[in-house]
Input
Amino acid sequence: MSAPLHHLGVAELGRALRAKQVSSTELTQHLLARVAGAKDLGAFLHVDPDLALSRAAAADTRLAAGEAGALIGVPLAHKDIFVTRDMPTTAGSKMLAGYLSPFDATVVERLNAAGTISLGKLNCDEFAMGSANENSAFFPALNPWDRTRVPGGSSGGSAVAVAAGLVPATTGTDTGGSIRQPASFSGITGIKPTYGVCSRYGMIAFASSLDQAGVFARSAEDCALLLSAMSGFDERDATSVQQPPQDFAAQMLAVRDGATAAQPLKGLRIGLPKEFFPAALSADVNGAVRAGLAELEKLGATLVDVSLPRTELAIPVYYIIAPAEASSNLSRFDGVKFGHRAKSYGNLIDMYEKTRAEGFGAEVKRRIMIGSYVLSHGYYDAYYLQAQKLRRMIADDFQQAFQHCDLIAGPVAPTVAWKQGEGADDPVKAYLADIFTLPGSLAGLPGMSVPVGLGDGGMPVGLQLLGNYFKEGTLLHAAHALQQATDWHRQHPAGV
Amino acid sequence: MSKNSKLVRGYEVVIGLENHVQLSTESKIFSGSSTAFGAAPNTQASAVDLALPGTLPVLNRGAVERAIRFGLSVGAKVAPLSIFARKNYFYPDLPKGYQISQYEIPVVQGGQIEFFVGDEKKLVKLTRAHLEEDAGKSLHEDYHGQSGIDLNRAGTPLLEIVSEPEMRSGAEAVEYARTLHALVMWLGICDGNMQEGSFRCDVNVSVRKPGEPFGTRREIKNLNSFRYMIDAVNYEVNWQIDRIEDGLEIQQATVLYNPDTGETRAMRTKEDAADYRYFPDPDLPPLMISADWVERVRGEMPELPAVMAARFQEVDGLPAYDATMMTQSLGIARFYEAARDRSGQPKLVANWMMGEVFRRTKNTLENQEKHGDTALRSLDAHFENLDRLLSQDKSALTADKLARIDQRTKQITLAQTIYSAVLPDQLGHLVSRIADGTISNNSAKQVFEALWSGEGADVDAIIAAKDLQQSNDTGELERILDEVLAANAKSVEEFRAGKEKAFNALVGQAMKATKGKANPAAVNELLKKKLGG
Amino acid sequence: MALTHDDVSRIAKLARLELSTDEQAALLPQLNGFFSIVEQMSAVDTSGVDPLYTPLSAVQEVALRLRDDRVTETDQRELNQRSAPAVEDGLFLVPKVIE
Output
């Protein structure tokens, strides 16, 4: 182990733990110390050292007994959108301050069973609504590459915790880009699988037809290990895909026909939608993305031009559908069964209105308003129905494109991470910045963000890779090949 | 216009019903919580039922199966694809802030219900029947000025059955509701318990001058007893006519009927209740029902009352009315068939059931129970239980029906402590004894009484013990008749003079002399012979 | 089409959100700003296109999965009510419900 513990990835740590080069307890103590020292980054909303250390001790016993699970004793942390029975869950909202769930989210349950050690719960935009983590009701998370900048969102804390070397991997959720964009802004690797691959049970719902759990880590290989453990059919989620457990690590390593040592990606066709490279795309992002694509070419991939003609429409379509579903999903927060209730109120309706006014932040209220409006009498057909029809057209465009390519590539976001406070004044401007991640989300396709160097202000740039349904293996294979040949993913912020 | 749709004060009454039928599943429609009635508050409200953050719904196959059953029984279309939608509104008994229901594409589409109003046959078309979840309950007894919310009922599966506005009188509405109530019990998809809210009636009422378009309707909600329905409708109809006559508008509204005052009053309507913002529930992909599944359900269905009644008419030669009475409930039908098979006397069995059996059973039950539905339910339960005692092959019973029988045994044992009863086999035996001339109808009544009261169990034993056997010993009879003729020379004279009445007098004397044990037919025959000779 | 203050307060009522006058004032232009980018959507001809309610139905038939009718839940009232604002005798308490 040449590098410091907190620079190691999940796979390396797993090997070290099984080789008894380090104990889970030592590792957990080391990372807890780093977490304590990095409070100002605002990555964590809740840390539970005692619980973590007791779990680490249990993991060490399993390891001592010779158990060989790849994740036994590996520390991580969960986005606070996943409910947990032994730690509070807030979804970044005052509405749920101190809320204790009677059960664990399926994703959490499975990662616990795999032997991972959760250090705590990670900061995020309130109910996962945002792209800068500035909508957290508690405090923003700061980008470790430049603390005056945002880490991206909504899974900002998840990205920061990995980028700052607080944990080797974290869970996140992606509804319109909430894994890919913060991974890009924070210079780490993130994956969002096909809709339905990870159970949504225990994931506090934002937009049910879009929400999907995923992973942040230092490499594609680490993503594959975690995704294998947390994904799979769950009978408690009617939208969970009925397929046998997947070994994504094996899929990642599977050798392509005609591949050579020098050209592991030989025959892989990567489509570049012209709509993903508009004039407005900032030069530094364009440059880094092109560099990444050049590397993929060197590795044997061929680049082909494709088109996703409705890319721009994805913005209104997404910002109709997601708020519509959210406005309904958030109705259960009414101060009756759990969570915040206003201190003083008159009648029942007054209790509802004050409770929700106090409990929800500005962006959440904005989306509830939009969602309620587009579903309300006389507007449904013009907005919600029309959006769902366009959604199918957008999904069909992808199927057209995938006739000519195996993967689609482009930037994750038009720019690198912006300064804190920007866009707060104009929410719509922030919506526009989601343009490259929204189409894949609407179609429910798997996607990744892979570091491809630094742009303006020394800020990281991510390459977005999108696969067809259930092609996580192909995505991970390409990303892994890239990371074997380059070390963009090994770069980390100064002082980490 | 039929006599059941007479105008009221010159107005035509237009009625459509919406019935909420609680489906008899073990678990809730979207969670694994029990649906059992009467548990301690919120002990049957799971994380899913409480809409705790992160929970998701998974649909109960049993609920769909029951919906299919109903659809087939009314000749409706069982939709191969139907959609669950969210009906959004805030109410404390609605944990998610929306009710999962079906809106644009329901699981059951169309169909019709046939029933009798008096002796007139009526047919009412159904618009639809859709699956949805029930809400919880607000308990209004005072908790320091607050209400208590119990969510045990939240998520109980409901089938909402909507009729076309094709009824024209309260009487028609009640008969429709009774028929629907009997049907869902017959199908074993609902326990029919109206006090516990298993079968709820919402009645949409409007009035119009004949030929005019429909008037504005008001909905009388939660009529949980048939007996109130007619009163409620009549009050509502007259109220609406009064308003119109006073030149006032009818506002669409939901009203409640108060049995004590006999009046309806408008509910305080939830504001903006109008705008439910329905949209397809993204947690629940489309419900697909394959043709195979529908056929499997069809195969498991009991013979429908109408079909069975037709069979009783054709095969057993029962009159239409009798056939309908023998198919009021599955239990009654099975009882009839058992007694018929034992005796081979369909009409006679039907007569006795419509007479002694129903009268006595209903009396006992109606004395016990207040609500209109209970008599039929307990009657059915009672017959059902007897039927089960008889049934040799219990494995033949579907799990569905067993569950039904079990959840009814409570009522049955109650019913049986109230009164003892006659088993189908006993009635069949009794009827066969009448048929073969062993006893007269009058004597049979005494035997029935003994069976009913439990004084005796075996028909022949009772006949012997009470010495009720009709004598067919001609030697003995001739001797008695000779005495009678000798003792009534005057009547004999009159008869020979052509006075028919005198003959009846002689028969009467003869019966008297035989203490009613003589077979009247035999007496007639012998007398004629002697007088003729 | 632009929203009015009345629209905003109507929707707020529908969504059970009490909005301060400042919030209302801030929301109106934001919502109208948003709906201006929505307009491009309305222009597209979608006749004959089926809505895509769940993503995978873009490429395959997605049928609702059903569970067997079995009771799998036990009484967890205490655990489930851990974070309830107001409970008495196992009931959730709310301001009087009037029908």
Summary: Chain B touches chain A through 31 residues (CB under 8 Å). Chain B is about 45% helix and 20% strand. The two ends of chain B are 63 Å apart (CA to CA).
